[in-house]
Amino acid sequence: MHFEVIHKPTFTNQLLAIPKEQIVHILEKVEYLRTNPTPDGKLKKKLTGYKGNVYRLRSGDYRIIYSYGDGYVALLGVDRRAEVYRGEQTAPDDVTLDLHQLPNLDDALSPPDPRPLTPDPAPGPKAEMLPVKLETGLLAKLLVPEEFFPEFLKCKTLDDLLQAQVPEGVRERIFDCITSPDYDRVLAQPSFLTGETDNLLKFAEGELLGFLLKLDTEQERFVTWGLKAKGPTLLKGGPGTGKSLVALYRVGEYLKALKKSGVEKPQILFTTYTTALIAVSRQLLKSLLGADATAVEVRTADSVVLSIVNRADGSPQIATQTDLKKLLKTSLPQAKANLSGNVLQRQAQEQTLERLSADYLLEEILHVIEARGLDSLADYQAATRSGRVIPLNKTQRMAVWSAREWLMTAIAEAGLTTWPHLRNRA
Questions:
Q1: Mean pLDDT across the chain, nearest whole number?
Q2: For residue 273, what is the DSSP state?
Q3: Backbone CA torsion sign across 153, 159, 161, 165
Q4: Distance separating alpha carbons of residues 58 and 78, to the nearest angstrom
Q5: Using an 8 Å Cβ cutoff, are 167 and 48 in contact?
Q6: Alpha-carbon distance 168 to 218, whole Å?
Q7: Distance CA 271, CA 8 (A)
Q8: Residue-wise pLDDT tens digits, 8-22
Q9: Alpha-carbon radius of gyration of the chain
Q10: 299 neighbors 269 (Cβ within 8 angstroms)
């Protein structure tokens, strides 16, 4: 029987910390599991102390932790037999007694100290030090983005690591490589399709950016949901629910549907909002679709916006955040001098413009007014502002609207434009 190999994030996290020559041997053992994961009492044994079915396969100084079921082998982790990655050899079986370390016999037979015993002060809570010092070499090997190096290098204790201002996935990678995982918890992690065993080596060398998620029943349902809808479909879910990967699988289903309907050379545009997702999306689509991946164009939404506007209007000059702050600073005095309403209303508006920070004002103007295409003060005063933290009444919105009008004029006179304007124009 041939078993499909899947893996948990902890496995690939730990694999990154292992020398390449050892990874090659480990992957040979993984291929062995692909044909026969059943424990034999020697190389493969069931581990006790876990609620789930957890096994280990020896590979030199390392052990591959895995589980298996009907038609699949799940790789859970890979670590040293005695210690996690500390660069140490396993302890020798023979122990040598050092006589110089024994207490002096005369001291042991001396009369007791006549002074009364006093209890030692109660020790305070002791910080648990990291079992491994975090250094740039280790962080680079674990494929941690360099922007997070300073935050990790400050960490001396486990508490430091827990409180570090870094993405949770990156923090978990560090934890997996310096502490011993609870494999019952690892079993509950999402599973990823390993594909060819060489993919694991490519991942460890930084050539492969990610793996396709093995979808559960609920996620599979959404891969084909609404494919025949005539209008847009919207799938919502919290972080880590697999929305992006469901979208990738839907691309494959759309291609099948288009070909079935008679479209010989279908074309699909797959957009994201971050440049960082472009490379990994392309790679995953290639893994999923094979040669059909050439039918899919992967771009950021804003790159599509620019190409549309470029064809119609030529290349725009987009204002930077620095440009916008300078233009807002020069626009505010004019906005204050031209406020509308009675004396009390003008005073309230002026206070609003003085109290709101430049960053907040720019966000309000660009992401609430301009992004939504609100064309009048009445539209703005009637608009909801969910998530904006600071409530603004109608008089305060009059002040913001005045600042917005003067700012937009200044931007146009400078020959600049903004991303919200470009998106609406596109």
A1: 87
A2: S
A3: negative
A4: 10
A5: no
A6: 24
A7: 27
A8: 999 999 999 998 889
A9: 31
A10: yes
User: What are residue 46's DSSP bridge partners?
Assistant: 55
The token pair at 220 is: 């599979």
Cα–Cα distance, 189 to 173 (Å, whole number): 13
In the chain, the amino acid numbered 37 is P
Please report which confidence band the pLDDT of residue 273 belongs to, taking 50, 70 and 90 as the band edges.
confident
Residue type, 52: G
Residue 393 and residue 315: Cα distance in Å, rounded?
39
The number of CA neighbours under 13 Å toward the Cβ of 332 is: 18
Long-range (24+ apart) CB contacts under 8 A made by 312-319 are 312/425, 313/425, 316/417, 316/422, 317/415, 317/416, 317/417, 318/416, 318/417, 318/418, 318/419, 318/422, 319/411, 319/414, 319/416, 319/417, 319/418
β-bridge mates for residue 65, sequence order: 56, 77
> Residue 50: which region, alpha, beta or left (left: phi > 0; alpha: psi -120 to 50)?
beta
Q: Are 363 and 387 in contact (CB under 8 A)?
A: no
Answer yes or no: are the C-beta atoms of 314 and 277 closer than 8 Å. no
Beta strands in 190-340 (DSSP E): 192-193, 268-272, 296-300
Evaluate whether 64 touches 57 at the Cβ level (below 8 Å): yes
Q: Where are the alpha helices (DSSP H) in 95-242?
A: 105-109, 136-141, 149-153, 158-163, 168-178, 183-187, 198-204, 217-223
Q: Decide if 72 contacts 3 (C-beta within 8 A).
A: yes
CB contact at 8 A, 61 and 68: no
Question: Which is nearest to 214 in space by CA: 238, 170, 248?
Answer: 248
Please check whether residue 152 is in contact with residue 134, taking contact to mean a CB–CB distance below 8 angstroms: yes
Length of the chain as a residue count: 426
Q: Which pLDDT value is given to residue 106?
A: 45
Eight-class DSSP state of 91: P
Whether the model clears a pTM of 0.70, i.e. scores above it, the answer is no
Give the containing element (helix H, strand E) for 362: helix 358-363
Q: What's the rounded Cα separation, in Å, for the pair 379 and 121?
A: 69
- For residue 61, the SS3 value is coil
Whether 255 and 289 have beta carbons less than 8 Å apart is answered as: yes
Dump pLDDT digits (tens) for 310-368. Answer: 999 999 999 999 999 999 999 999 999 999 999 999 999 999 999 999 999 999 999 99
